[in-house]
Amino acid sequence: MTAAAEKPGGRGRTAAVTATDLLTATASRIADAFHGSLPVRDLYSPEGARMYDAFTQEDHSEVREFLRLARGCPGPILDLACGSGRLTLPLRALGRDITALDSSSEMLRILSERLTQARAHVTGQVNFVEADMADFRLDHRFGLVLLGATSITLLDRLGRAALFERVNAHLLPDGRFLLTALEFDGCSDIGDETVRVVIAKNGTDPALHLFTEQLDPAQGIRTVSILRQTLHGGEVTHSELFTTRVHTVTVESLRAELEAAGLAVHARHPVATGGSAYRVTLLECSS
Ligand SMILES: C[S@@+](CC[C@H](N)C(=O)[O-])C[C@H]1O[C@@H](n2cnc3c(N)ncnc32)[C@H](O)[C@@H]1O
């Protein structure tokens, strides 16, 4: 499977680099231990979308912070890089129209299924847009644009500049742009690696997810890999490895880039992370 080599801007794909080429440290040793039989996939492939949805089933991080701030920003909501709706679904409790934008048709398909399952309990319209968050044009503006799950790291500097310009063009005069960022400030060791385990459901059976990440601050790169093993009757029935490479950016750099794009940072809100290796900050911005 070819994967996550990015064009300038961090938005495109080339066929030159495979997902296997991106593996680092622990993930690489895991792949070796399977003697080449382990499928290695892009985290943002269709298979990766289904894994991400299962992996984050019980992940409620950022939800409380986004809901609290969203209550103070009237008007329609634009959820950028919405994925399978980890934030979109709880935001529906506000009863406002939401536009859910993602570049993955599979993520939007899963979100649509989730909405159908949740229909009895929620209000407000959800519109789906399959698009690049750094290159979208919608026919109206929003009281709130949000970018959660520290997904700003999916874009490089050029991609971020394009995104911020698009966000500014889609904000109502009193609108707010909320985004979360990892605090990379002070992280310096190449080879830093954290490992954690998440057990989620695969239908009625458990699926074991071993999450590893490695930071290379000098290159401005963070590599994330997740080994997923599905089990049935106590036996492993399938193993797959998912990987992606994202861009590190300090909160100070982000603030400068936002300001260069005409977006002022009004406030920084700490986000509860439940023991993550990094701190997460929610930046509240407006035109
Ligand atoms: C880390 S997930 C976040 C999903 C969701 N917001 C959450 O909080 O769990 C990142 C999402 O960004 C999407 N994505 C990646 N690159 C994108 C781009 N350039 N434009 C729009 N979506 C993108 C992926 O398909 C994925 O659904």
List the helices and strands and how they pair.
Elements: H1 25-33, E1 40-42, H2 46-55, H3 63-70, E2 77-80, H4 88-91, E3 98-102, H5 105-118, E4 126-130, E5 142-147, H6 157-169, E6 171-182, E7 192-202, E8 205-216, E9 221-232, E10 235-247, H7 251-260, E11 264-271, E12 280-286
Parallel strand pairs: 1-10, 2-3, 2-5, 3-4, 5-6
Antiparallel strand pairs: 6-12, 7-8, 8-9, 9-10, 11-12
Helix pairs in contact: 2-5
The chain binds S-adenosylmethionine.
Residues 11, 44, 56, 81-83, 86-87, 102-104, 107, 132-134, 148-149, 151, 154 line the site of S-adenosylmethionine.
Textual characterization of the structure:
- The chain has 287 residues and is an alpha/beta fold.
- It has 2 domains: 19-56 and 186-247, no CATH class; 63-183 and 249-286, Vaccinia Virus protein VP39 (Rossmann fold, 3-Layer(aba) Sandwich).
- It has 7 helices and 12 strands.
- The chain has helices at 25-33, 46-55, 63-70, 88-91, 105-118, 157-169, 251-260; strands at residues 40-42, 77-80, 98-102, 126-130, 142-147, 171-182, 192-202, 205-216, 221-232, 235-247, 264-271, 280-286.
- The strands form 2 sheets. The chain has a 7-stranded mixed beta sheet, with helices on both faces. A 5-stranded mixed beta sheet has the order 1-10-9-8-7, sandwiched between helices.
- Strand 8 (205-216) and strand 9 form a beta hairpin.
- It is globular and about 55 Å long.
- The relative contact order is 0.18.
- Residues 1-14 have low confidence and may be disordered.
- S-adenosylmethionine (SAM) binds at residues 11, 44, 56, 81-83, 86-87, 102-104, 107, 132-134, 148-149, 151, 154.
